[in-house]
Design goal:
This protein has 296 residues and is an alpha/beta fold. Among the domains are: 107 residues, Response regulator (Rossmann fold), CATH 3.40.50.2300; 88 residues, no CATH class. 52% of the residues lie in helices and 9% in strands. It contains 13 helices and 7 strands. A 5-stranded parallel sheet has the order 3-2-4-5-6, with helices on both faces. Strands 1-7 form a two-stranded antiparallel ribbon.
């Protein structure tokens, strides 16, 4: 029986111009969340405004061309992205830096070096708050919203969570002025199928004695892997690196001259460049070393 993952993981967008920082956050988040990455502000805005926006954004402050503060400002001005929780993670630890980030609309400000358990706990709390706020907007449930705002204000006095008091005050103000409206974020359940399980089972079930003109089981598997890798790269999904590792030998055999270039671009989180190279070779008739070529 196919292994089906019915858990609809939240998507977190990590924005940082340093590959080591991106790798650190991917390692921290990948088991519990779907992780997308952006290595500059423009890329972050594009992903946030896409048809599949993230549920939460982790944003560095110091980036070239467009810093994190400007990214935050633009996101909060856009009705399509203004409700996405945004958390700054930065080495800028001055009170003024944190104040500026929170005034721009960030829900939290975490300074580096980070404490992984604390970061994970804060992310979990902020996603829960977002889910509650979305629900209340959708249900127009003013009584429950007022109780939630009162509870959050009380909790903010006992729990040191940056931005919690500001969130509670904004929620209370919105309720009093009846500014909450029915504009829930479009969310649909994501049914994720175990990719490796399917293609491996496909290879086992295909007849072994095939006509030479037909593609082999390995070639069919290669096409499936390439298609999945293209999708992950196009969506800025950090799972692309994991898929590459899982099928490295297959891809090396198929693209001996281009594999290293694809690998290098993915490792440096230059997904656009990796996608260009992959599409250039995978959309041609695929050949495995020592195996028959698939007819066009």
């Amino acid at each position: 029986m196919d292994e089906i993952d019915l858990v609809n993981k939240h998507t977190i967008l990590v924005v940082d111009d340093t590959p080591d920082n991106l790798a650190l956050m991917i390692g921290l988040l990948k088991d519990d969340y779907k992780v997308k990455i952006a290595y500059n502000g423009e890329r972050a805005l594009k992903i946030a405004r896409s048809a599949s926006p993230p549920d939460l954004i982790l944003l560095d402050v110091m980036m070239p061309d467009m810093d994190g503060y400007e990214v935050c400002r633009q996101l909060k001005l856009d009705p399509k992205t203004m409700n996405i929780p945004l958390v700054f993670i930065s080495a800028k630890a001055e009170v003024e830096d944190e104040r500026k980030g929170l005034e721009l609309g960030a829900i939290d400000y975490i300074t580096k070096p980070i404490s992984p358990p604390i970061v994970l706990a804060r992310i979990k709390n902020h996603l829960a708050l977002k889910a509650m706020a979305d629900f209340l907007r959708d249900q127009n449930d003013w009584d429950t919203a007022e109780r939630l705002a009162f509870t959050l204000k009380g909790a903010s006095g006992n729990v040191s969570v940056s931005g919690l008091q500001q969130f509670a005050e904004k929620l209370e103000s919105a309720i009093q002025e009846r500014r909450l409206h029915k504009q829930a974020d479009a969310q649909s359940g994501e049914l994720t199928t175990s990719f490796d399980h399917i293609i491996d089972e496909l290879g086992q079930k295909l007849p072994q004695d095939q006509d030479l003109a037909a593609p082999s089981a390995e070639q069919i598997k290669l096409k499936a892997v390439c298609a999945r890798l293209e999708t992950l790269l196009a969506e800025d999904d950090a799972a692309a690196a994991k898929l590459l590792d899982a099928h490295a030998e297959l891809l090396k055999a198929a693209f001996p001259a281009q594999y290293q270039q694809i690998d290098d671009n993915i490792r440096s989180f230059n997904f656009d460049a990796a996608l260009v190279v992959l599409r250039g070779v995978s959309h041609q008739p695929l050949t495995l070393v020592g195996m028959q070529e698939t007819p066009a």
